[in-house]
Design goal:
The protein is α+β, with helices and mostly antiparallel strands and about 750 residues long. The chain contains 30 helices and 20 strands. It folds into six domains: about 200 residues, Orthogonal Bundle (Hypothetical protein af1432); about 140 residues, Beta Polymerase, domain 2 (2-Layer Sandwich); about 120 residues, Beta-grasp domain (Ubiquitin-like (UB roll)), CATH 3.10.20.30; about 90 residues, no CATH class; about 80 residues, no CATH class; about 80 residues, Alpha-Beta Plaits (2-Layer Sandwich). The longest helix has about 30 residues.
């Protein structure tokens, strides 16, 4: 018999194999088997992207296939979404139009592809205004069809998985966007696995050394964790076997990003993170009606073996989170004296916890009634629409307002009539008032919480019963923005304040015009700029508002400054009225190097460039050894930020095209200010011992020292000058070796 040889190109074979994996996964799902239309979409996309390659060198079609696999396997969507994922870049990158897609695949797929095309290139454009508009399009499209954002998140996940082929500045931009918006969106939509992976990948590219260090420590402590888990789980298995249900017990290990965030916020080393291990019990209920009771039956069994923590039981079975998450959490004391969290979930709950809202459809089986979590999603989308109806003038404010509620945990509070309302954790009575109605919020004077009078600043707790008290004489002030924590309340307060400020601005401009006219001074840009400098305002509008509200009163001092002239008869140059002007003058001394800078090039931070070319961020105060980035500001100056700086996090997400890679190349010739915090037991001579370590052992100058003692516990803040992070680490290690020092960390 003759052997038939097929000469299939290896690359072609690779593409076909990947597509076959997608088809196999789809056929294994519960969705209707529409393989024909998926194959048609694949062939169309393959033809459209023919000859195009990604930066990694692989054929471009591999990206749409990978996105479709995420949509199918990891999110659990059906043929419409899979086809849309395969076609998501066709309209943006080729000559085909949305009309072509509609003619070939129908209106629904065309609508989703159109939504994805409108928000192409990530949420954020090259400019702030374009970025805000793109984000609005994203949210508007999301409220029409939630599958648009689910596919967009899948697209971002694959981009993050292949981010290594991008330049460093692009990596920072994309990772910054991902942490700022995509991970919170994935969380809000219940995509827990994807949210965690997006965070870890962003962390890996922004802080590779820290990521690797945590991974190594997790690996080194794995055997110890496995032993703890097995010993803890053994008696649980014995109890659950008696219930006669199918179950599995798994250990859940805290993600590297979550560990790192806790290390940063608590200023503690890896060894002091005690909740790395958690235990998850997943069971198959006898039927759907016994699911809730089964959770509590398991809980009762656990409490027969271990003591539960009275304040750390969370019932998200009876009251699911707004993103659909359901589970019963209990924290138990192990036989070795360690608190271990146990999460109790049914198979359905676990599926929804990992795959989000898409998993709800898998369990509906023809039931058209909306679940509680779907109703919560509708409420959230309604809030988004309210914010869109009242757009923020500043793009960053707009994004921050939207983001406010994305990552918040939830509490449950009650109205006076006993109706339950879900609010973000940390909500105040003022937030609750605005959640009822804008009028109630804008005239809120306080509340009765559990029948006790409380102010608008009171932070609500789960189970509180809240009655809002109003007064027509009360109106929002700027101070309210520091009290409100929810997007809805913040948006409404800003809207009211902007309306009032418009009136004050108009009044203030008229008052200034009249004042200048009376004193025979012509109103022009130079005059207004001088007054802004004098009263420490960055923009004329802010000055007009202050004059209109009466916080700035124009006087003879203003006239003297405006009429003051130099001997040559020109205007005397105003340099520094207030801190702001001083900073601006100092900044102008630096070279404007950002305009023509090659943005793919990595900045070299030498002694000369740090002193003469670039500005170090005042907010995070980076020093050699910190992971840093450059940012080209509006004046084309380059500012150096720590990657985890709160301001840098916003800049990466909002103006990613201005971000630059940067690395230190210092020779320990200049010193930098740094602050550390030390805590421990007070004793005679301890402060002397600490200063000896810093000044004599390490030869470092102390700039400032503040000490506070209370009931035998001391806390000390020390500012000093160092060369780099290694010097800080060495000092902290030496301080921790002093017997009565229990904590020492860089602030």
């Amino acid at each position: 018999m003759d052997t038939v040889h097929t000469n299939i190109d290896p690359e072609e074979q690779m593409v076909n194999d990947e597509f076959q994996q997608l088809v196999d996964a789809y056929l294994a799902s519960k969705h209707r088997k529409k393989v024909e239309i998926i194959t048609k979409a694949f062939n169309f996309a393959k033809h459209a992207h023919k000859g195009v390659r990604r930066l990694s060198g692989e054929p471009y079609i591999m990206h749409p296939i990978a996105v479709a696999k995420i949509v199918c396997i990891e999110i659990g969507l059906g043929s419409t979404s899979i086809c849309s994922a395969l076609l998501h870049d066709v309209v943006e990158d080729t000559d085909y139009t949305v009309e072509d897609i509609e003619n070939m695949f129908g209106p629904k797929i065309a609508q989703i592809v159109d939504g994805l095309t409108k928000i192409s290139g990530g949420i954020f454009g090259e400019h702030a205004s374009a970025q805000a508009e793109n984000f609005k399009k994203l949210l508007l499209t999301m409220s029409d069809d939630i599958r648009v954002i689910l596919i967009k998140i899948a697209d971002r996940l694959h981009n993050m998985r292949t981010l290594g082929s991008q330049a460093v500045n692009k990596q920072y931009k994309i990772a910054g966007e991902t942490l700022y918006i995509y991970a919170p969106l994935a969380n809000r939509l219940g995509l827990n696995s994807i949210k965690t992976e997006l965070e870890d990948l962003s962390f890996k590219f922004e802080h590779p050394d820290e990521y690797t260090a945590i991974e190594k420590k997790l690996e080194a402590t794995k055997a110890e964790r496995d032993t703890v888990f097995q010993e803890f789980a053994a008696p649980i298995r014995a109890q659950l076997d008696g219930l006669g249900i199918n179950y599995e017990i798994k250990q859940r290990v805290k993600s590297p990003y979550s560990i790192w965030r806790k290390m940063q916020t608590k200023h503690i080393p890896f060894e002091e993170i005690y909740d790395i291990l958690a235990v998850r019990i997943i069971f198959d209920p006898v039927d759907i009606d016994t699911e809730l009771n089964d959770c509590f039956d398991i809980y009762v069994k656990l409490c027969k073996i271990y003591t539960s923590h009275p304040d750390r039981t969370r019932d998200w079975v009876s009251h699911p989170k707004a993103n659909g998450y359901q589970a019963l959490h209990v924290t138990l004391m192990s036989k070795k004296g360690e608190w271990i969290e146990v999460q109790i979930r049914s198979r359905r709950m676990d599926d929804i916890a990992e795959k989000g809202f898409a998993a709800h459809w898998k369990y509906k089986d023809g039931d058209k009634t909306e679940s509680a979590s779907e109703l919560e999603l509708d409420k959230w989308l309604a809030t988004i629409k309210e914010i869109l109806d009242d757009p923020q003038p500043d793009a960053m404010d707009f994004l921050d307002t939207i983001k406010l509620n994305l990552f918040a945990s939830e509490i449950f509070v009650f109205t006076p009539k006993g109706e339950i309302r879900t609010m973000p954790a940390g909500s105040t009575t003022l937030d609750f008032a605005f959640s009822i109605h804008t009028f109630v919020g804008s005239h809120c004077i306080g509340a009765k919480v559990n029948h006790k009078l409380v102010p608008i600043t009171y932070k609500l707790n789960s189970g509180d019963q809240v009655e809002i008290l109003t007064s027509k004489s009360v109106h929002p002030t700027r101070a309210w923005l520091n009290i409100a924590t929810t997007a809805k309340a913040t948006t409404k307060i800003l809207s009211i304040l902007r309306k009032e400020e418009r009136e004050s601005r108009k009044k203030g401009e008229e008052m200034l015009g009249e004042f200048l006219k009376q004193n025979d001074i012509e109103k022009n840009t130079l005059v207004v700029d001088k007054l802004c400098s004098l009263h420490d305002f960055g923009k004329p509008d802010a000055l007009y508002v202050a004059i209109g509200e009466g916080t700035v009163k124009l006087s003879q001092e203003d006239i003297n400054v405006l009429k003051e002239k130099t001997e040559e008869g020109g205007w005397k140059k105003l340099f520094s009225f207030g801190k702001k002007a001083n900073k601006q003058a100092k900044k102008k001394e630096k070279e404007k190097v950002g305009k023509d800078f090659d943005r793919k090039k990595i900045l070299s931070l030498t002694e000369d460039s740090v002193q003469n070319k670039y500005t170090l961020c005042e907010n995070c105060k980076p020093i050699p050894g910190d992971s840093v980035m450059g940012y080209i500001d509006d004046d084309n100056h380059i500012v150096i930020h720590k990657l985890q700086c709160s301001l840098a996090e916003r800049l990466k997400a909002n103006h990613g095209n201005r971000v630059l890679g940067a690395k230190w190349e210092m020779n320990r010739l200049i010193i930098f200010p740094v602050s550390i915090h030390v805590k421990g037991f007070d004793k005679l001579g301890l402060l002397h011992e600490m200063t000896q370590v810093i000044s004599q052992l390490h030869g470092v100058n102390i700039r400032k020292l503040e000490v506070e003692c209370d009931n035998g516990i001391f806390e000390c803040n020390i500012q000093m000058y160092v060369h780099d992070t290694k010097e800080v680490s060495d000092i902290l290690a030496s301080l921790r070796n002093i017997p009565d020092v229990k904590e020492a960390a860089r602030v």
